[in-house]
């Protein structure tokens, strides 16, 4: 988007910004928390988050969406993108990893299948109108086209880096055994139709 709209300014907020990516000159990544965004009221025309379903609790979702609404201009838009894990029939190692991860984060009080609740939360924010949603099933890997390839790369980062220690601890296995499970899982994804559901919600802040 930053490349397509070079005259617009894009600001990303991360708890621990440490990206090695090279961004266009109209992009800034700063330190920030969704639950207390470091921005003024009505600062943005468009505010978007993605991939928070395994990071924050239901109560924090409400607080985070209120913060997104606060920093968005009247007449501006907010958007949320999330994915649900779908039980896999032909990828037993991926299913094993996903089942254990869902167990681990539910023990932390998180709700990974937040898609069933987000629209309800949005409708309870009285500053929002024009609330919409869409869902799309995507195959991981080349069978899913450009989106499937991107999701497959992201899944690799997620399993190898982001969630690896959580799974190693929860499954009580060695790092070597975990890496072996994921490598077999990668092969399963490449050979089978492994599916994710992508959800989008978008709403306008009232004028």
Explain the overall architecture.
- The protein has 207 residues and is α/β, with parallel strands linked by helices.
- The chain is built from 6 helices and 6 strands, in the order E-E-E-H-E-H-H-E-H-H-H-E.
- The protein has a 4-stranded mixed beta sheet, sandwiched between helices. The chain has a two-stranded parallel ribbon with strand order 1-2.
- Strand 3 (44-50), helix 1 and strand 4 form a beta-alpha-beta unit.
- Helix 2 (92-107) packs across helix 5 and helix 4 runs antiparallel to helix 6.
- The longest helix has 18 residues, at 145-162.
- It is globular and about 55 Å long.
- Residues 26-78 form the Methyltransferase type domain.
- One of its GO terms (biological process) is methylation.
- It comes from Gigaspora margarita.
Task: Report the mean per-residue pLDDT as an integer.
Answer: 87
Q: Which stretches of 5+ consecutive residues score pLDDT under 50?
A: none
Strand order of the largest sheet: 3-4-6-5
User: Tell me about the biggest sheet?
Assistant: 4 strands, mixed
SSE-based structural type: alpha/beta
Q: Helix fraction?
A: 25-40%
Gross morphology: globular
Give the number of helices: 6
Specify Rg, calculated over alpha carbons: 18 Å
| Proportion of strand residues | 25-35%
Oligomer: single chain
Cα-to-Cα separation, first versus last residue: 25 Å
Spell out the helices and strands N to C: EEEHEHHEHHHE
Number-wise, the strands total 6
